[in-house]
Amino acid sequence: MKITSTIAGILTLTILLACSPSGNGSQPAATADPLPSWIDGDAKQEILDFVARVTDPASSEFVPEAERIATFDNDGTLWAEQPLYFQLFFAIDRVKALAPEHPEWKTQQPFKAVIEDDLEALVASGKRGLLELVMATHAGMTTDEFERIATAWLDTTVHPTSGRPFTDMVYQPMLEVLDYLRAHGFKTYIVSAGGIEFMRPWTEEVYGIPPEQVVGSSIKTSFEIRDNGSVLMRLPEIDFIDDKAAKPVAINSHIGRRPIAAFGNSDGDLQMLQYATGGDNPGFALLVHHDDAEREWAYDRESHIGRLDKGLDEADARGWTVVSMQDDWRMIFPLAD
Amino acid sequence: MKITSTIAGILTLTILLACSPSGNGSQPAATADPLPSWIDGDAKQEILDFVARVTDPASSEFVPEAERIATFDNDGTLWAEQPLYFQLFFAIDRVKALAPEHPEWKTQQPFKAVIEDDLEALVASGKRGLLELVMATHAGMTTDEFERIATAWLDTTVHPTSGRPFTDMVYQPMLEVLDYLRAHGFKTYIVSAGGIEFMRPWTEEVYGIPPEQVVGSSIKTSFEIRDNGSVLMRLPEIDFIDDKAAKPVAINSHIGRRPIAAFGNSDGDLQMLQYATGGDNPGFALLVHHDDAEREWAYDRESHIGRLDKGLDEADARGWTVVSMQDDWRMIFPLAD
Fold it and tell me: What is the DSSP-derived secondary structure letter of residue B313?
């Protein structure tokens, strides 16, 4: 598994720059391809061109380092999301574990679907139903306890069809984009409809994105004093669903700057991409199009999970970058495909 | 005015470390006093001791750099807050400018108090009333427009008694604490009941704290597409009041880590200090006690603004650091007192 650290990256780069034996900062280094998993083509070139434009001080589109904010959706953009958002497998396991204490779930959707292993009914309950399932089964413990539960589950559970740990099912080409942007002064954030506290325990190790740069959906919490300290209790009440038009709102709340690059894969990311491209700075918008049924999954306009319909039309109309996983990516997952 | 940048600080430090001519990392540098505006005494020593304990790898209380989160209240902790929270002077000027369009304000508190220059009635409307005033007068424009309005006001308005710009009325000893912590690997955050978007335009220049490390109260916003781009409209509806038990909640939401040091000055900060000291890591809690009527203001248990009552008792019971502005601070503001 790829381990990346923003801070370590900055420091290493700085030490190299500061102590370069040649002492000649203007001499170009022998540069390896920064995006080796990307096949040479339009998508790759558009990424490289954008970064070149905003980081060249002589360019009319130069953006100071502090304003180089890049936001990434997670499900379907940085890791896979089929046959269900991965967090739902966690929720399903939690529902089954907690079901004996909740007899009412036997007749109440989407819990009934989970208990009866009816995936189709579960998916049909829609994104909001799915989020409610997640939120309801993620409450009743402290934030510290939840982190331990989620981490233990991720460490011991594998994906139903690949048999791999879920954190192995991240996209190698996107890991390269994250590294490439950070090496050029970008601060990388996750802005996902997934649960913020489900992601934070592992995003630093897997993506090089620390917890404070992860934005997501949340349930309410309550501060409580205990005999041996203080805790935040997780309440069974939705606080914020970080999807669609709520993504720009959450970006403004958590970051306070408009991103200049946004990466998504579904109509849930549309407004985030509109926000990144709708300001004074040059904006870059990229959609990952899942069109590789052989190495991953193929789905778009009709899918319940990760539907990409309006986004494809808008990308076409506005010249956004659309990545064909089949044609643009040499490999999908970090391990051999 | 002091201009500080976290990133620049890290890079400078790194270059110095990486290129030290002596090449001997273990040799102590000639160290100037990192807190020159602090009089030698318990408070100063407790700060120095805490930082030494958590940054010494040989210490049993060592805390890795990524977990060195320090949170600071703003009003009364980093800058002054008398005779009113400074943001209220902005709100008052906005109410007066907008009053012709709002005839109903003539009979409605706290607007009536503002229009009639009745400071006492305004203060008596309480923190929630004051926040409502702020929120109501800060809506109806885009986030970008609000930033311009707030910045223009701060650039052109002075404090009613000192005659200085509000951003000059920051506490020099606290600026030194911010720098000192950052030089020891801490990430510094503001966690304030003040408006998040009122603070973000100037906190980087004044405190060295970038917008993404500022947490505060907020009104709701709505994403809208315009002919020439996209905006967030500010709505006249309170979203979050970042005070008391909401501070740990906001810290968890924005940062996702428990602070190991928290700095406040009023009972509104009590839970933040309980949170910082209530976890597994060693925690440091500090209260600024306003007891210097000559150089600043003296107020605590009975004050409407910045009341410090329960906090003093809890600090006494738990051994928190209490700073006497009179006895512990050589100077108050960066300019000559």
Answer: H
User: Worst-scoring range by mean pLDDT, A37-41, A112-116, B199-203, B222-226?
Assistant: A112-116
What is the 8-class DSSP label of residue A147? H
Confidence at residue B25, expressed as pLDDT on a 0 to 100 scale: 38
DSSP state, residue A28: P
Give chain B's mean pLDDT: 89
**DSSP for A30-47?**
-PPPS-TTBPSSHHHHHH
Q: Which of residues 197-236 of B touch A (CB under 8 A)?
A: 197, 200, 204, 210-212, 214, 218, 220-223, 225-226, 229-232
Compute the C-alpha angle B245/B127/B314, nearest 5°.
45
- Does the CB of A58 have a partner CB in chain B at under 8 Å? no
Nearest to A225 by CA among B72, B271, B314: B271
- pTM of the full structure: 0.89
Counting one residue from chain A and one from chain B, the pairs whose CB atoms sit within 8 A come to: 116
Asked whether the beta carbons of residue A229 and residue B279 sit closer than 8 angstroms, the reply is: yes
- Measured between alpha carbons, how far is B289 from B326 in angstroms, rounded to an integer? 9
Please tell me whether the peptide bond between A83 and the residue prior to it is cis, using omega within 30 degrees of 0: yes
The pLDDT mean for chain A works out to: 89
Check if the beta carbon of residue A247 is closer than 8 Å to that of residue B202: no
